[in-house]
Design a protein that fits this description.
The chain is mainly alpha-helical and about 300 residues long. It has 8 helices and 3 strands; from the N terminus they run H-H-H-H-H-H-H-E-E-H-E. Helix 1 runs antiparallel to helix 4.
Length: about 300
């Protein structure tokens, strides 16, 4: 009796995971150090908030790397269907790290606001923030491509955070310029805005990955597409049940199809296998369970 799933590790997928991990960790460590030094030298609340955000990004990137590595380990007796559920669980740690950065940013901004703010050195601060925006745009494009190719919720969350970092660095830049040309309180106000943007990103990541962990079903459009694929297989008369749920970042499908009840069991089984193979070609699908029933005694 077979007790453990025997699917081999997808080496191409694992390679892309490693690329995303390297980009995220190296890029965020570099930016956290650079912005941290500039925040210390300039005393800017907005730059400090942005540096805290990069520190949070560094922490979640490390968690992401560990989690993605574990999620790609082959199935064993303790996890007979594999370790894919680890991946969205890691995304929750990413959200926690981002929350930490948001709390620090808002707290620092409020403190500086009530103390009247501070005008930072506009030259170097502007240069660092523009440099940070450029780095994050490059990171977003590369990580987003890897996330799209792998359908990884953790990598997609990392890409989304990179895009938000572009907006938060731009807000920090606006705060520095506002403090210099208009009023010093613009700097802490920008820091608070950065913190609120961080919280918004956290909610999006939590909402998506809680769905993966709690067995959220496929969108109606995808379920209809799956049924249409099954009906395209010769010998399938009807599809009367398609139940899908996310188990980790990919779905498992439970489908009931009807075939001619007078054909042999061997032919009916072959039709079911063809349906399963076609549906598994979808990148969103992990496993497919096909129940073959005779058309004459169709169940609903």
């Amino acid at each position: 009796m077979k007790l453990v799933r025997s699917d081999a590790v997808d080496m191409q997928r694992l390679k892309k995971y490693k690329q995303a991990i390297f980009i995220s960790i190296s890029g965020n460590i570099f930016l956290a150090v650079v912005k941290g030094v500039m925040a210390w030298l300039s005393g800017s609340s907005a730059v400090f908030s942005d540096a805290a955000n990069s520190l949070g990004d560094t922490l979640y990137s490390i968690f992401m790397g560990i989690g993605l590595y574990l999620s790609q380990q082959p199935a064993d007796e303790s996890h007979p269907q594999g370790h894919s559920r680890i991946e969205p669980f890691v995304s929750l740690f990413i959200a926690i790290a981002i929350v930490f950065a948001g709390v620090v940013a808002v707290q620092q901004g409020i403190t500086r606001f009530f103390s009247g703010g501070r005008v930072a050195d506009i030259g170097w601060t502007t240069l660092i923030l523009i440099f940070s925006i450029c780095i994050k745009v490059v990171m977003f494009c590369r990580v987003k491509r890897l996330g799209r190719e792998t359908k990884s919720p953790a990598i997609n969350a990392s890409a989304r955070d990179n895009l938000v970092d572009v907006a938060t660095s731009a807000a920090a830049l606006a705060g520095v310029w506002g403090a210099f040309f208009i009023d010093p309180v613009f700097d802490p106000i920008a820091g608070i805005i950065v913190g609120l943007w961080i919280f918004r990103t956290t909610w999006e990541i939590l909402n998506e990955n809680i769905g993966y962990l709690t067995g959220r079903g496929a969108p109606r459009e995808l379920s209809q597409k799956i049924a249409k694929i099954a009906l395209s297989v010769k010998g399938v008369d009807h599809v009367h049940r398609v139940i899908s749920e996310y188990v980790g970042p990919r779905m498992r499908i439970d489908m009931h199809i009807n075939v001619n009840g007078k054909i042999s069991l061997e032919k009916a089984h072959a039709i079911g296998e063809q349906v399963s193979e076609k549906i598994r070609e979808l990148s969103e699908v992990d496993l497919v369970f096909i129940h073959v029933e005779p058309t004459e005694s169709e169940n609903t």
